[in-house]
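Lecture notes, unit on protein representations.

Consider one protein chain, 245 amino acids long.
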Amino acid sequence: MIETLQWTTLAVCALVSVARIPSTLRGENRSLFGIFASMTLAILLSINGPYLVIDQALGGINLANLLLRFVIFGVIFFMGIRISRGFSAESAHRYITGRTGMLVLLVISVVMVALFFSMDTAGSSAGLKAVSAKDARHFALVEYYGAAGRAYPAYVALALVPALVRAAQDRLPVLVRIGAALLALGGVAVALTLLFPVIPPELGQIEFIINYTAILCFVIGLALIWAARVVNGRGAARQKTSTET
């Protein structure tokens, strides 16, 4: 089930990225293509097979995991900027790009890197499972490292959720409201990742479901908002043509 969910999410992200290529080549919303492409890379790095291949190419010390964390940070940062601007959420934009947001990103990044290099990370292992199994110290360090990796996305998600909930209830085009609702659901799912340390090991599959639910909600939500812009743009063009004739 988990593997199917992973590959399905990868396929969805890749298809949406490919669909954005024509618009990107025309110079339209290139940042959106960057977000979708980065999401695709993040999913690829989270799947065991591709992860092992990529990490071996990087030296076999799980640098692919650290890369994955920073790819996610980049995705959530630029997605936060785009969403906050798109919905005129000035406070959310300030929390993400202002001094507080930059300080949060810097502190979490430094802590995460310090934790990573304090471990013996030799031996490629998706999710650092082999590293955490070495001894109690490494188990604790992997847990702290994972918590740091989840902290920044949760921070950005919590900053965005109120504006997204308002947008979903506003008098906006239906596709935009559905997209905003999905983005809000994705934000809530990301925030729930902060609770992973209290989830019993036997219920570990819940973590995968929450993670991939968040990604799918973000991808589909952004795609619907993009589709709404395309539909509205064509409608405006037809109305203009009708008026001119």
